[in-house]
Every structure is written in C-alpha cells, then in structure tokens.
Design brief:
Ribosomal Protein L9, domain 2, four-stranded mixed β-sheet, elongated
Length: 194
C-alpha cells in the first residue's frame, strides 16, 4: 500500500515522503496513529493544502520532546528485583517496567517509547534508549539490584556479583585455615605422636 508520511518514521522516510509499505503495517500502525495518509489523488491534495500546518505541529512536538528529553537524559533509576546468586533475575525487566519506574520518579513516558532490543535479565547498570519523538532520543541508566544497599554499591562502580563470590571464597579459605590450625591439624599431630 502506498502512503504519505505525516511525520518521520524511522527506517521508512520523512515528512511528506510517499512510500510503499505492507498493508498490515499501514492499516494497523501508520493510519490509526495518524502517522500517514493513503496515497491517492484526494489525500495528496489534502496533504499539500495542510503541509505547513503539519510541519508546524511536528516542529512543536519535536520541541516539546526536546525539553522533556533534557530532564530525562542521563538520569538514573533504581529498580529492586529478586535475583539468583549468579545475578540472573527471576523474570525480566521490560519496557513497561522501565516506563513505570520513570513515571514514578516524575517523568512522563509511555512504554512504547522505551527501546529495548531484548528484555533485561541480569543485575547491574544498564543503559536504555528512550525515543520521545521520531527525531529525539535520550539515554537513561537503570540500576537493577536486589536491595537498596546493593544499588548504592553498584552506583559507586562495584561489581556486587564478583564481590559476593570473592567474599565467599575468602570465607571458605579462612574456614579451611581455621580447620587446619585448630581441628584437623591437631588430630594429625596427635596420631603422629602415638
């Protein structure tokens, strides 16, 4: 189906471009969201008559997104989730979770604005792209941790999973040394004397 784009659509074209897309994409996404018009003689006349208004509306939306993006860009959000000892989350963090976290802190985004190539399934700091407008994108940081204390340690740059394994290894080494000094070492000496 041929359509006339009413705003920039990533990977497709810009305002006023006449492009060919699959029928389902046009009917289910572009047309209901007023991102395009069907490309026929009547629509072309309507588009040409309203082109200045459409461009002005698009510029206003871009400016508003730019102002909102200044507040969001580089901001960090803490998300407390349950996870296993290896840092794997029980479940995952999706676009909806990210949008809820941003909105809880006073931001204003929709889940469709969050660009995740795949769901986040591990603890740590993750950079997430948020597309506020077709031409305005910002990056936020998600600090996913098991507790607030762990989130603060991660924010300082500490790798809590490696630190946890290191603490456990040191404790095991200390226990082995204590066992040799106090318990098992004495038993060997007693049997050696007899």
């Amino acid at each position: 189906m041929k359509v006339i784009l009413l705003e920039r659509v990533e990977g497709r074209g810009g305002l006023g471009d006449v492009i060919t897309v699959k029928d389902g994409y046009a009917r289910n996404y572009l047309l209901p969201r007023q991102k395009a018009l069907r490309a026929n003689a009547a629509s072309l006349k309507i588009f040409e008559a309203q082109k200045a208004d459409i461009e002005a509306r698009n510029a206003r939306a871009k400016d508003a997104a730019g102002k909102a993006g200044e507040k969001l860009d580089g901001s960090s959000y803490v998300m407390i989730r349950q996870a296993g000892e290896s840092g794997q989350l029980y479940g995952s963090v999706t676009g909806r979770d990210v949008a809820d976290a941003v909105n809880a802190e006073g931001g204003k985004i929709e889940r469709a604005m969050v660009v995740l190539d795949k769901p986040i399934k591990t603890l740590g700091l993750h950079e997430v792209k948020v597309r506020l407008h077709a031409e305005v994108a910002v990056t936020i940081t998600l600090n996913i941790a098991r507790s607030q204390d762990e989130a603060e340690r991660q924010a300082r740059g500490e790798n809590v999973i490696n630190a946890q394994f290191e603490e456990e290894r040191l404790a095991a080494d200390q226990a082995a040394a204590d066992l040799l000094e106090g318990g098992a070492g004495q038993m060997a000496q007693e049997f050696g004397e007899a």
